[in-house]
Amino acid sequence: MGLFNKKFTIVVACKANITRSAYLHGYMEHYLKEHLPYARKKIRILSAGVKARSGGSASQVVKHVAKVNGFNLRSHHSDPFSKKLVKQADVILLMEQWQKDALLEHFPKAKDKTFLLTEYLWHGDTKDICDIPDPTGQNTADYEEFIAVAHAEIDRIFRELGREGII
What we know:
- Pfam families: LMWPc.
- The protein is an alpha/beta fold.
- The protein has a single domain, classed as Response regulator (Rossmann fold, 3-Layer(aba) Sandwich), CATH 3.40.50.2300.
- The protein has five helices and four strands; from the N terminus they run E-H-E-H-H-E-H-E-H.
- Strands 2-1-3-4 form a four-stranded parallel β-sheet.
- Helix 1 runs parallel beside helix 2 and helix 1 crosses helix 5.
- The longest helix has 24 residues.
- The protein is globular and about 35 Å long.
- The N and C termini lie close together (10 Å).
């Protein structure tokens, strides 16, 4: 992790940083608090959007979904990517391939630390690596599918980070 026990920094990102990455940021913080409280001193979670405007709040629907899942997004404010944020990140997790491509076009030096959410620390068949569709404006079933995939991926990623000795 580097000198002075720098926290391992994960930046989770999507398009506008108001639905998927907002939810995942809050959920990851909640997950650490509930399941891995010792790891909170070792890991930092941030979020951003490849086409985000600074200061936007999480969507009303995703705020409700977060509340149903035991946490809140009242203090979430969207952030666009910056050179400083990319430099701070140990890993950047994106929802869709086009977002990964767009980020790397602007920040090519981030190539070795930029992954799709389903790609990061994945040891299975590469055909299982996929985009995480945006449920914004969709029906309840689309949000439920997003939440199921998001929760499973975060559980898997934190388990793998533990195996690697990062947390």
